[in-house]
């Protein structure tokens, strides 16, 4: 089926210009293959005239078979005073051997005069000559009109003359670019409509997100006749980024009801978004529209109650259409529906008639008031609901623990420190006592607890802590580094004095940890005025969750 709207991906070129993003050649090939499988129509591989890495990418991409997408090499019009056939950068575009070549040229007289230092007529010749030469070489030529909208607002007649120069030279497509990303949707619509009424060839749109309107501006252009959208996965790009394809694609398909990517691909959109973030070594943004973890998360009790009855009352689409899913959050704002739906999500048999429901809700709200947070600690939440529903004893109990830190100054190897934890656990009528050293007090405690439990629960040897976060909840909070500076001992046991917070502060601390057994991941929480005690709570919950997951 021929698409009504073409999707042109420039993640590998424009997206890689975003701060903190650096793709290797292998990274670019992997992303390109995934984009091709997803069904985008064009993949802009890079600028072969700008760096050796992009040249290598095109050399290696040439040997692969592309099922859906056409590869595009990106470059500029010829230089001032140099014939297109003699311009080294233009020759490299041909050497990339891609079926598509995308070139950009100047629309704005400010750039023509102050950046290129060329006359207006010379700029028109540079556009026409380059397009004509590439067409004569058999290429599908896309002309990106840089600063199209700013240029049009400055001088409509000259801006239109540049676009007509590309059309007359044989360009297959003229793409209007909001390069500064500062236009409003009304401006985009008005200028796109003016171009549509004058040009005979197809129009595309390329927007940036500097004022947060990259996606809205692209859709405004589509509504005025543009049938080609350029953007990047997850909105990567210079400054605040480019038009986000993970938002544009479902908006085109599900809101404007226009065919773009294959229907089966839409359900893989979230997976594609996460894959590209992983390759870029970036944490996935949970607040991304459509594909983020919170895009279909419900927290308020009234909202959840409505969703439980009629999902579309608070969901603009079925989350599964874009590969996402509904999430029910449980907090101090929760109602009965939150708890029931969350329990079902966690695989627990709970409904509105369960006798323990009222007690579960009350306990969650009490704990949230004390500082616990279950939105990000679903492992601890599942345990809490199970304990109150099933009235089961815990599989083990920490009966005593001791954490100490000693620092030795000077010596041949300089300053050194030793962190040591002793943990005693009871499983039924059996006891186990272990001692472990670690890189810090929490690491030592984690190792000691796991070692003590492995004797009884062999699967725990595969469990490891993969993330650890601390938040001070009180205004008089002190630095977490206080724990590293203290040589005090923390004890917990039947004969011991009341525990004393390390660092001497009474501030409450929330600890969130994330754990894995190599196949699954889960998060747990602990809260105390003592960071070690809070850490132990979260670690104990983590081990108990692991036993349920085995």
Overall description:
- It is a single chain.
- The chain is α/β, with parallel strands linked by helices.
- The chain folds into 3 domains: 6-261, Alpha-Beta Barrel (TIM Barrel), CATH 3.20.20; 297-390, no CATH class; 397-549, Alpha-isopropylmalate synthase LeuA, regulatory domain (Double Stranded RNA Binding Domain), CATH 3.30.160.
- Helix content is 37%, strand content 20%.
- It contains 18 helices and 17 strands.
- It has helices at residues 25-38, 52-61, 88-95, 109-114, 120-136, 148-154, 156-168, 185-198, 214-222, 245-255, 269-280, 301-309, 336-345, 357-370, 378-390, 441-454, 482-485, 531-549; strands spanning 6-9, 42-46, 70-76, 100-106, 140-146, 173-178, 202-207, 228-231, 297-298, 327-328, 397-408, 416-427, 430-438, 464-472, 490-492, 509-516, 521-528.
- Strands 1-2-3-4-5-6-7-8 form an 8-stranded parallel barrel, surrounded by 9 helices. It has a 4-stranded antiparallel sheet with strand order 13-12-11-15, covered by helices on one side. Strands 14-16-17 form a 3-stranded antiparallel sheet.
- Helix 9 links the parallel strand 7 and strand 8.
- Helix 9 (214-222) runs parallel beside helix 10 (245-255).
- The longest helix has 19 residues, at 531-549.
- The protein starts with 5 loop residues before the first strand and ends with a helix.
- The relative contact order is 0.07.
- Mean pLDDT is 86; it is low at 475-505.
């Amino acid at each position: 089926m021929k698409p009504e709207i073409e999707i042109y991906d420039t993640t590998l070129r424009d997206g890689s210009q975003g701060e903190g993003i650096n793709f290797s050649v292998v990274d670019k090939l992997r992303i390109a293959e995934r984009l091709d499988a997803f069904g985008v129509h064009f993949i802009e591989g890079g600028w072969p005239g700008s760096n050796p890495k992009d040249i290598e990418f095109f050399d290696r991409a040439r040997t692969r078979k592309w099922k859906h997408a056409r590869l595009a090499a990106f470059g500029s019009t010829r230089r001032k005073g140099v014939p297109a056939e003699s311009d080294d950068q233009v020759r490299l575009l041909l050497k990339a051997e891609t079926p598509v070549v995308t070139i950009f040229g100047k629309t704005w007289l400010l750039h023509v005069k102050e950046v290129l230092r060329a006359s207006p007529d010379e700029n028109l010749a540079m556009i026409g000559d380059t397009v004509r030469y590439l067409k004569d070489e058999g290429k599908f030529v896309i002309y990106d009109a840089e600063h199209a909208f700013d240029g049009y607002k400055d001088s409509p007649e000259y801006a239109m003359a540049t676009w007509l120069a590309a059309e007359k030279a044989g360009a297959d497509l003229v793409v209007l670019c909001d390069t500064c990303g500062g236009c409003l949707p009304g401006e985009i619509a008005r200028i796109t409509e003016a171009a549509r009424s004058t040009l005979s060839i197809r129009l595309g749109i390329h927007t940036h997100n500097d004022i947060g309107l990259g996606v809205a501006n692209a859709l405004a252009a589509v509504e005025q006749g543009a049938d080609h959208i350029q953007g990047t996965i997850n909105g990567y790009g210079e400054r605040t980024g480019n038009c986000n394809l993970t938002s544009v694609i479902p908006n085109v398909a599900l809101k404007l009801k226009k065919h773009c990517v294959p229907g089966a691909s839409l359900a893989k959109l979230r997976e594609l978004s996460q894959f590209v973030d992983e390759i870029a070594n970036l944490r996935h943004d949970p607040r991304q529209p459509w594909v983020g973890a919170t895009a279909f998360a419900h927290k308020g009790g009234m909202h959840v109650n409505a969703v439980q009855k009629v999902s579309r009352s608070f969901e603009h689409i079925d989350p599964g259409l874009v590969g996402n899913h509904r999430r029910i959050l449980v907090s101090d704002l929760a109602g009965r529906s939150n708890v029931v739906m969350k329990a079902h999500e966690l695989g627990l048999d709970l409904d509105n008639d369960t006798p323990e429901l009222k007690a579960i809700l009350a306990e969650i709200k009490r704990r949230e008031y004390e500082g616990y947070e279950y939105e990000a600690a679903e492992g601890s939440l599942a345990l809490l609901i199970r304990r109150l529903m099933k009235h089961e004893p815990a599989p083990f109990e920490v009966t005593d623990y001791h954490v100490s830190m000693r620092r030795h100054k000077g010596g041949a190897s300089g300053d050194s420190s030793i962190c040591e934890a002793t943990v005693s656990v009871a499983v039924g009528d059996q006891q186990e006592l272990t001692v472990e050293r670690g890189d810090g007090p929490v690491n030592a405690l984690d190792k000691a607890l796991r070692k003590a439990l492995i004797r009884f629960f062999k699967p725990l040897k595969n469990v490891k802590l993969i993330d650890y976060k601390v938040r001070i909840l009180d205004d008089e909070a002190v630095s977490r580094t206080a724990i590293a500076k203290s040589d005090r001992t923390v004890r917990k046991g039947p004969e011991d004095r009341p525990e004393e917070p390390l660092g001497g502060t009474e501030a409450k601390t929330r600890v969130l940890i994330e754990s894995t057994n190599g196949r699954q991941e889960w998060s747990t929480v602990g809260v105390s005025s003592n960071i070690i005690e809070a850490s132990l709570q979260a670690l104990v919950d983590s081990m108990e969750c692991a036993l349920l997951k085995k």
